[in-house]
Target: Clathrin light chain
Amino acid sequence: MDDFDMLSAPQGSTGNGVGADEDPAAAFLAQQESEIAGIENDEGFSILDSGEVPSSLSQDPDGGALNGDLHGESNGPSDVYVAISNADRLQAEPESLRKWREEQQERLEQLDANSRKQEAEWKENAKLELEEWHTRQNEQLEKTKVNNRYTTLFEQLKSIRGLVSASCCLIRKALESTWLLFCTASCILAQVQRENLKIIHTTQVHLLTSREASKAVCPSNQAI
Model:
């Protein structure tokens, strides 16, 4: 409504130095050019340096080119509406950028929340796996201790068996040696007895022989 009021206002001196005899549409367009130039400078466009009109200003909202260059001649009220539309669109771009940033912020917050949740799940799973690992290690350690005890006992039994076997072997050898000595002593004793019997028998024979000889030599001794 302000634009139409400006167009319908009485001709006179304007605030930007335009005379009363000039076209109000041209004056309005010049004012819009000044505002658009300020917006372009705020948005980082370098129109004054390059001399080129950005695509956002060289096309209308429907994608078509403007009827005339903003820095050239105007084509009447249609250029005014195009300039107003472009100005509104330039003002709407920061809003879309703000919305995009908000969406990105929400997305980052969601990703951060998911990351923290996943990290907590990983920590919980790692804790459970560590507890299970410790449990398995303790069970394996107990089994190893039992196996070691059985192995040690078996080795001790084998050692005792070896000692018993060695002792039995020594005893058997000792008994064999004792039996051999006994047999040897018995043989020697029997031999001695036989020798003694021979000596006794020989002595008796000598005595009888001597007595018979004595009788033959001295008959008187026979009477006696």
About this structure: The mean pLDDT is 73.
